[in-house]
Design goal:
The protein starts with 8 loop residues before the first helix and ends in a 5-residue tail after the last helix. The mean pLDDT is 94. The protein has 123 residues and is mostly helical. It contains four helices and no strands.
Length: 123
C-alpha cells in the first residue's frame, strides 16, 4: 500500500508550490535557469515566428527547468537514503545531471538553429 493521501486539487497544488519554494531556496542552478527563462520569455512574444516554432522554443526553455527539478528530486532521494559515498548513489546523481545536460543541449540546438535562420546568420 502506497503512503499517498487521497487526491485533492488544492492540497496537491500546495504541495507543488511548496516544492517550488524549496527548490528556489536551495538550488542555485534552478535559479540561474529560471532567470534565463524569465529573460527569454518576453523575447518569444515579440519575435516574428510561427506559433508552432514559438511553442517548440517555449517547450525547450521549460524543459531545462523540468530537468533541473527532476535532478533535484533524484539528489534529495539519494541523500535521504545515504549520505555516505556509494557508487550507486553517485551513479544516480550523475544520471540526474545528465538529464539536465541533455535538456540544455536540446535548448541550445533548437534555439540556435531557429535564431540563426531568423537572423540569417549562416546564409
Amino acid at each position: 500500500m502506497r503512503n499517498q493521501p487521497k487526491y485533492h486539487f488544492f492540497k496537491n497544488t500546495s504541495y507543488a508550490l511548496s516544492g517550488l519554494k524549496d527548490i528556489l531556496k536551495h538550488e542555485t542552478s534552478f535559479k540561474i535557469e529560471l532567470i534565463l527563462t524569465l529573460v527569454l520569455l518576453p523575447f518569444l512574444l515579440f519575435i516574428d515566428l510561427s506559433l508552432n516554432t514559438k511553442l517548440l522554443m517555449f517547450i525547450t526553455l521549460f524543459g531545462m527547468l523540468i530537468a533541473e527539478t527532476i535532478n533535484s528530486a533524484i539528489e534529495r532521494v539519494v541523500d535521504l537514503v545515504t549520505l555516505d559515498h556509494h557508487v550507486m548513489a553517485g551513479r544516480a546523481k550523475d544520471v540526474g545531471s545528465t538529464i539536465v545536460f541533455l535538456s540544455i543541449g536540446v535548448f541550445v540546438v533548437v534555439w540556435g538553429s531557429i535564431l540563426s535562420e531568423y537572423y540569417n546568420i549562416f546564409q
